Amino acid sequence: MTARARTFAALLTSALAVAACSCTSGSSTPIPATSDSVPTLTTEIVREYDRGDDAFTQGFEIDGDVLYEGTGLEGSSFVRRTSLGSMTELERVDLPSDLFGEGITVDGDTLWQITWQNGVAIARDRDTLAEQRRVNYDGEGWGLCSQAPDDRLVMSDGSSTLTFRDPTSFDAQGTVDVTLDGNPVERLNELECADDGSVYANVWQTFDIMRIAPETGNVTAVIDGTPLWDSMPASERSGADVFNGIAQIPGTDRFLVTGKYWPKIFEVRFTDTAPVGQN
Hints:
The protein is mainly β and about 280 residues long. The chain is built from 3 helices and 22 strands.
């Protein structure tokens, strides 16, 4: 089975689980996911980086001068470290063929990696990516990020719920339901715990990123990533899959974002107006 065929099979399996949803967006909020009470932001492209199109991106995070990326699909999942300055791969470790990789995050000297339906979280050495231990959890794993000031991890499972976890034991410590104008926002996927305390979340099968106040679950902004997709020529979009992957460049207002099998990584700012010449 080809990688693209495996992708289709995996997405079809997941889609069947949410087929009862009558929305067209991958979120229980109507499309477009806009609101009178929160701002809708757009993505201003600062820079583009070319990369290969072999990464079914699930987790994206920057620690120091290293970009970490976790990918999915059984038989082809891997995790890697990339130099942020040169965008060259430093280390790469493949997952066992029976594991479907999902979100990742760095917490201290540990890189945590979760799996989709295997119920397994892997603790790795941050520098070598060597596996150190495994822990089990209930339910699915989608996205993961670390809130260092609060000494906790934040995890998504494809629903509208975020789960807070202990960064050492991985035990669940509580949950919060994410809502926009009181409506649950489903299919929360890749997560980024930002410097300002917000959690950013890709919404699966959309170009939306939700900025979330983790203490209340309220969405404080909706970010439209459509300009990134529109900027790629048809030849690059033909093999690309859904929008997924967000990592803040520490100490700045810029983020790196990408998608599954996207041949580009975009450095962006989130702004409330479209740049000149961008519709």
